[in-house]
Amino acid sequence: MDFTFFFIFLFATFGAAATGAMFPPGAWYEKLQKPSWVPPNWLFPVAWTSIYLLISFAGARVAGLEGAALPLAFWALQIAFNTLWTPVFFGLRGLKASLPIMACLWLSVLGATITHFQVDTLAGLAFMPYLIWVTVAAMLNLKVAQLNPDVERLQIDKL
């Protein structure tokens, strides 16, 4: 594994992580109805930090290997949808609007997991916790949207 690649991938995850700092859940989220199985708040930063380290490792493992083009394309796609979801769900309070983004995120993580496995087994394994976590997140997103049908999305004023 090339550490230069690792730090480049890790830096890319900082963009996604920054949206969490820019658009924190806040009091409005705490007031929403949530399913009984929602993970505790402390688990979210632990899970995301671990996932970002693992997928950076996975990207670095396949970068430069033959057949890396498709895994790296999926890597880029998943981090883009990952970065987009937080501002829509938490920033705009778009519970329903975030669902198509979550679906695309889940599909891109699935694609990244499969294609990383095809090039390097350890890289594929490194994506497995992410696939599990994003599956839980997708179910949570759907359930929160269903439990809170009257939450209105914030509107951005035209410039």
Tell me what you see in this structure.
This protein is mainly alpha-helical and 159 residues long. The protein has a single domain (3-33, 41-147), classed as Ferritin (Up-down Bundle). It is 74% helix and 0% strand. The chain is built from 6 helices and no strands. It has helices at 3-22, 26-31, 43-62, 69-91, 98-119, 121-147. The radius of gyration is 16 Å and the shape is elongated. The N and C termini lie far apart (46 Å).
Which key phrases capture this entry?
single chain, 159 residues, mainly alpha, Ferritin, 74% helix
Query: Pairing-aware structural class of the strands and helices?
Result: mainly alpha
Number of domains: 1
How many strands in all?
A: 0
CATH topology call: Ferritin
Overall helicity: over 70%
**Structural shape:** elongated
CATH architecture: Up-down Bundle
Main sheet, how many strands, which sense, barrel? none
Low-confidence stretches: none
What is the straight-line distance between the termini?
46 Å
Helix/strand order: HHHHHH
* Mean pLDDT reading: 93
Q: Which percent band covers the strand fraction?
A: under 5%
CATH superfamily: TspO/MBR protein
Q: What value does the Rg take, in angstroms?
A: 16 Å
